[in-house]
Amino acid sequence: MSDALDKAEAAAREAAENTDLTRIVAAVLATQQAMQQQSTSVAQQSTQAACQHHKPRRSAGEWLGIACAVCVGGVGIAFASIALAILGGVAAIVVLVLRDMWRDMRNPKGR
């Protein structure tokens, strides 16, 4: 019977120690959480204070997007210029052929 009583007493001591340990861990966690909330609120206040008179800057991704848009636009303008040059050449050939046909129709005897 004394053996069971010793086991019960040891279990009671262990439970008491675990309760104290649990309280300590809970206090440490609460302190860490309070410090984290305080540092977060300070960081938010400093960010808000710094951003009131400064415009946000563009990120690298935005600059990369702008550069790609400019390159694509430049290539598009180049292709449009080439297309206009070809169109002008074709139009000149068509005008010359039509003029020659008009001359032939007005002067049937030949040149």
Topology:
Layout: H1 2-51, H2 60-106
Description:
The chain folds into 2 domains: 1-54; 57-111. It is rod-shaped and about 145 Å long. The model has no long low-confidence stretch (mean pLDDT 81). The chain has 2 helices and no strands. The longest helix is centred in the first third of the chain and has 50 residues, at 2-51. It has helices spanning 2-51, 60-106. It has 111 residues and is mainly α.
| Cα-based radius of gyration, to the nearest Å | 44 Å
The poorly predicted ranges are none
The largest sheet, given as strand count, sense and whether it forms a barrel, is:
none
Distance between the amino and carboxyl termini: 141 Å
Pairing-aware structural class of the strands and helices? mainly alpha
Mean pLDDT across residues: 81
Helix content: over 70%
The count of helical stretches stands at 2
The tally of beta strands, per DSSP, is: 0
* Overall structural domain count: 2
Please report which band the strand proportion falls in: under 5%, 5-15%, 15-25%, 25-35%, 35-45% or over 45%.
under 5%
How would you sum up the global shape?
Answer: rod-shaped
* Topology as a string of helices (H) and strands (E): HH
